[in-house]
Amino acid sequence: MRNLAACKQYSTRRLVEGYEIVYNWAMLDIQKIRVLCFDVDGTLSDTDDYYVNKLSGRFQRLPRFLVREPERAARRLVMWSESPGNALLGLSDTIGLDKPIVSLVDFMYRHRKRKWRQFLIVPGVLEMLARLKGCYPMVIVSARDEDSTMDFLKEFDLVKYFDLVISVLSARHTKPYPDPILLAAKKMNVAPSACLMIGDTTVDVRAGKAAGAQTVSVLCGFGEEDELRRRNPDLVLPSTADLAGALLGK
User: Fold this and answer.
1) Statement to judge: residues 143 and 211 lie in one domain
2) Mean pLDDT of the chain
3) Which of 43, 57, 83, 102 lies in the 20 to 30 Å Cα band around 2?
């Protein structure tokens, strides 16, 4: 039985298109958590809203039956262009072709040429990491390659917050397989069940659950709330920035 004193009911309020939305989420067994595992794209790294808005404006000129939700379609297209590996991994969850798509992602990252790109950070992430530092060891568990992962961390001076970086090629298989989280647990000398996987896609939830870890889904990236909830994460948050409040209290 869970120690209820170690659990927390999390709620927050946000204004979305003029409406106040109240989020009341399930309880997370905080007492078990020893290590925080963060995805990068859509979790720490943000999408460029300039291009999202530009594309959304163009989509709005199209017939409604072609693009029902212009902003959502634009955001997803920009995310696909910025992170094709993560996009393909998300597709694997939709069409049920894990092995061939994970193999394709591995091949892409092994053979692609490195190119410069501008990085953005999810608003509030810096403050969140600063609050959590010293309270929990933190690691990166990403489907991104190591070079671009480190480029992102260095650009925003985030290296100091993380004890370990697990990238797409660190383990035998990448997410949605549990291998990266199992490797992180082993290197951090904790049980997989003591890890908390934080990510924005169903792939992160699946990998965490397969490893025996708890999972937090955030709504600031790729994943849609309905599809994330179908995978039953232990907690759903509007943004990664809300994590410190959920774990430490406001």
Assistant:
1) yes
2) 77
3) 43
Q: Do both 136 and 12 map to the same domain? A: yes
H or E segment and range at residue 149: helix 146-155
* pTM, 2 dp: 0.73
Which residue type does 134 have? Answer: G
DSSP 69: -
Contact (Cβ atoms closer than 8 angstroms) between residue 176 and residue 98:
yes
Residues 69 and 140 in one domain: no
**What is the spatial distance between Cα 24 and Cα 131, in angstroms, rounded to a whole number?**
22
201 and 140 in a single domain? The answer is: yes
Residue 163 pLDDT: 98
Question: Do 41 and 148 reside in the same domain of the chain?
Answer: yes
- Please give the Cα distance from 48 to 216 (Å, whole number): 23
CATH number at residue 194: 3.40.50.1000
In this structure, the answer to whether residues 153 and 168 fall within a common structural domain is: yes
CA distance 96 to 224: 18
Place of tokens 């608003």: 123
Q: How far apart are CA 235 and CA 224, in angstroms?
A: 14
Distance CA 29, CA 10 (A): 12
Residue whose token pair is 């000398």: 189
Q: What is the distance between the alpha carbons of residues 81 and 129, in angstroms, rounded to a whole number?
A: 27
The answer to whether residues 219 and 124 belong to one domain is yes
Phi, then psi, of 40 in degrees rounded to 5: -105, -70
Nearest to 193 by CA among 31, 62, 39: 31
Instruction: Report pLDDT for 95.
Output: 41
